[in-house]
Amino acid sequence: MFDFLKKTLASISKQNGKVSKEILEEILLEADVSYDIVEEILYYLPPGDLVKKEDLLRVMSAYFIYDKKEEEQSKPFVELILGVNGAGKTTTVAKLAYLYKKQGLSVLLGACDTFRAGATKQLKLWSEKLAVDIVINENSKDPSSIAYDSIIKALNKGYDRVLLDSAGRLQNQKNLNAELEKIIRVSNKALEKAPHRKVLVLDGTQGNAAISQAKVFNEIIKLDAVIITKLDGTSKGGALFSIAKELELPILYVGVGEKEDDLLKFSPDDYVKTLVDGIYANE
User: Fold this and answer.
1) How many CB atoms lie within 10 A of CB 258?
2) Distance between CA 99 and CA 109 in Å, rounded?
3) Could you tell me where the DSSP H helices lie in the chain?
4) How far apart are CA 168 and CA 244, in angstroms?
5) In terms of Cα–Cα distance, which of 122, 123, 214 is closest to 163?
6) Which residues pair with 80 in a beta bridge?
7) Exposure of 250 in the CB half-sphere (CA atoms within 13 A)
8) Whole-angstrom Cα distance, residue 134 to residue 93?
9) Phi/psi of residue 191, nearest 5 degrees
10) How far is 12 from 9, CA to CA, in rounded Å?
């Protein structure tokens, strides 16, 4: 799953023999793990200069331990997808639709991003390519009304999943705040407890900027999970530690390309193991 990380870490980890804490620090920093987290990892390792592989695996795995939230059993199950422009939000909505369809679920898209020019057109093109239904209202700029119509249609037609693609502008936080709160309020009127999951899409190449965006969204509405995109654009991927620590939210999937099937279920164990295996590749 994360073979691209292993190759890069193997090239970073040029030393032979045991891994010292000094060398480990250099490798982790070069792999885009933040300085604060690198220092924290070193602190929690057992005393001594040399680092055992199993100790590093244990310490790094701790960053991905979350409180597990039970998923609402609802038909339709409504997900509100958020993210700033450029993070790959609309493409991620399409990838989720493709994934759910492969699982035998019926999917309805809600084109609630009425702010970004071309967002509705982009989602419509994806709906045609994937052969999934979509709710569009060319005459309305009110995303909450489109969310409502999407949920009502899903209820009437018996859809399993509803994916609401929302606007993600941060330059006017006040407007975004009001818009998102209204979408949630109106969705709940259409179907109790909807949206059942609020998922933030983050660009994995953005580092601290992505974390800052996440904090803003989490303050506006309590997020349930994140999806990390563009991991194919960074061969290191250490930024996921900062995202996991700062947000304390589960990472559901990672995007590794532009095609509809370039969305992989995130496995913390596989991710950490790949990183550690890469560090010790030349041992």
Assistant:
1) 12
2) 13
3) 3-12, 21-30, 35-44, 53-61, 89-102, 119-130, 143-157, 173-190, 208-220, 239-247, 268-279
4) 21
5) 123
6) 164, 198
7) 16
8) 12
9) -155, 120
10) 5
Could you read off the pLDDT of 31-85 as tens digits, one per residue?
A: 878 899 999 999 999 999 999 999 999 999 999 987 767 777 899 999 999 988 8
- Rg of the chain's alpha carbons, rounded to an integer? 20
Work out the pLDDT band at 4, boundaries 50, 70, 90.
Answer: low
CA 127 to chain centre: 21
Q: How far is CA 147 from CA 18, 75, 113, in A?
A: 56, 15, 10
pTM for this structure? 0.89
**Overall average pLDDT of the 152-174 stretch:** 88
Computed over every residue of the chain, the mean pLDDT equals 87
Q: Are the beta carbons of 9 and 281 closer than 8 angstroms?
A: yes
Whether residue 268 is preceded by a cis peptide bond, meaning omega within 30 degrees of 0, is no
> Which residues contact residue 38 at a Cβ distance below 8 angstroms, ignoring those fewer than 6 apart?
25, 28, 29
For tokens 């005393």, the residue is 47
CA 200 to chain centre: 6
